[in-house]
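A quick aside before the break. I want you to see a complete sequence-to-structure record at least once, exactly as it would be stored in a machine-readable document. Don't worry about memorizing anything.
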Amino acid sequence: SKQNNQVEPASLFRRLAAMVYDGFLLAALWFLATGAIVALNGGNALSPLQSQLILFPTIVLLTAAFYTWFWTHGGQTLGMKTWKIRLVTSGGKVITRHQALTRILASIPSIACLGIGYMWAIFDRKKRTWHDHLSHTRVVKID
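That is the input. The structure line, written in tokens, reads:
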């Protein structure tokens, strides 16, 4: 039997699978937001400048809000619930908003460096990514 702090880290496969599920949910939110912005623009397509100044920041903020809300309210997005994984602090507690935002920002270089920040989990003893390390969080398997 495992002690409380000895929960099993989630595999990279489970984490990526949860991200795919969440990607579908996020795409739906992005479509709704885009539709609302186009409607507010009189039904006209956005200019490249409007896309840069309004649409892109809206999508970035919506994505950050999505993850921050789910992670700070139970530690699981809907994709994470499906794949039975949870994000917690290094000590096993619900993460703070600061940790969520740190994690979101730190995931950018994890992806931008050809995904090496994610693949780091394959070699890390506790299956942590770069953004896990930087935000003092971990993703664990739950029953």
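Two observations worth writing down. The chain has six helices and two strands. The chain has a mean pLDDT of 95. We'll return to this after the break.
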